[in-house]
Specification:
The chain has ten helices and 13 strands. By secondary structure, the chain is α/β, with parallel strands linked by helices. Strands 4-3-5-13-6 form a five-stranded mixed β-sheet, sandwiched between helices. Helix 5 links the parallel strand 3 and strand 4. Helix 1 crosses helix 2 and helix 1 crosses helix 4.
Length: 309
């Protein structure tokens, strides 16, 4: 087994095609296929399902590639520190729940590097996919939150995938809506006041669970609900339908614009408030890359400034 073979299978899995992978790697398709077959024979498993529509990982292949990515990631870090610069672009990615501050921090981090030499990726996605992306090292870092409600389930899932959670900040629940909303002038908003307006939430897929909801207080009974897949749609629904969502209260006006506000959620006996413990996840015992270290530093600095206001 060689590092070259690991790079081959990682690239094939990311492109879903031997042909596309051969173009990226500057390797002929027959040589690429031969290298994969030799590796499969050596380790005694089939890594890829092959079909006319492309390739996909087998169950054994998915497990194998999670280890392959971890090894190759550490090799990249070693070469960054001690090796000569190569022609292959270095990769860095994060996966996150829909946090504008995560995007803002990513932008500030990327400014420190030459994008001609690096391949950056930021994925705003479902909670389960955040965990899966970091587990397979498709992304080096993931961002999500824990609460009293989801902590046990999410923590067990992280532990079973050999992932660590690092706390960044604690936040109370806020009602996020546009400045023209009938409740926008309230100093705080009670649950009963929201009954006439649609509650907006990010879709978590067919296997969705209350435990994977991005919105705090997800177990409350909302008479009107609308699900969305991306932050831009969510903001449009806030204006068009007077919708609202429940969030951390951390607003990045530079990205979302100045037409939206966060109003404190006022708890009552039946609807208590709950803290969001926002943090990042990373593979246990993984040495962060230069980009990863800088991203975490900028995250901590940005949230520290927010917390001090």
């Amino acid at each position: 087994m060689t590092l070259q073979q690991l790079r081959y299978i990682i690239t094939i899995s990311e492109t879903g095609s031997f042909n596309k992978a051969s173009e990226i790697l500057y390797v002929s398709q027959p040589s690429l296929s031969s290298a994969v077959q030799e590796l499969e024979k050596e380790i005694g498993i089939v890594i890829f399902h092959r079909s006319g529509r492309g390739v996909s990982l087998t169950n054994d292949g998915a497990e194998f590639i999670s280890y392959a990515r971890r090894i190759y990631h550490q090799y990249d870090i070693l070469m960054d520190k001690y090796g000569k610069s190569g022609s292959l672009k270095k990769k860095f990615g994060i996966s996150t729940q829909h946090y504008s501050f995560a995007v803002k921090t990513f932008v500030e981090m990327v400014k420190n590097f030459n994008t001609a030499e690096y391949e950056f990726a930021i994925r705003e996605t479902k909670t389960r996919e955040v965990i899966e992306d970091v587990n397979t090292l498709k992304s080096e870092i993931g961002l999500l939150y824990l609460s009293d409600f989801n902590r046990k389930v999410i923590t067990n899932l992280l532990r079973s995938n050999d992932l660590e959670f690092h706390k960044l900040i604690d936040c109370n629940a806020y009602v996020y809506l546009w400045k023209g909303h009938p409740l926008a002038e309230c100093k705080s908003i009670r649950f009963e006041q929201l009954a006439d307006y649609p509650c907006l939430s990010f879709e978590q897929g067919s296997d969705s669970s209350f435990y994977f909801a991005e919105e705090i207080l997800s177990t409350n009974e909302y008479p009107r609900t609308i699900k969305a897949n991306d932050r831009a749609t969510m903001l449009n629904l806030m204006i068009g339908l007077n919708g609202y969502t429940l969030c951390s209260g951390i607003i990045c006006e530079e990205l979302n614009g100045g037409d939206y506000i966060a109003v404190p959620f006022e708890q009552d006996t039946d609807n208590p408030n709950s803290k969001m413990e926002i943090g990042y996840i990373i593979k246990k015992n993984l040495i962060p890359s230069e980009m990863g270290r800088l991203y975490i530093e900028k995250l901590e600095s940005y949230l520290r400034n927010i917390d001090s206001k």
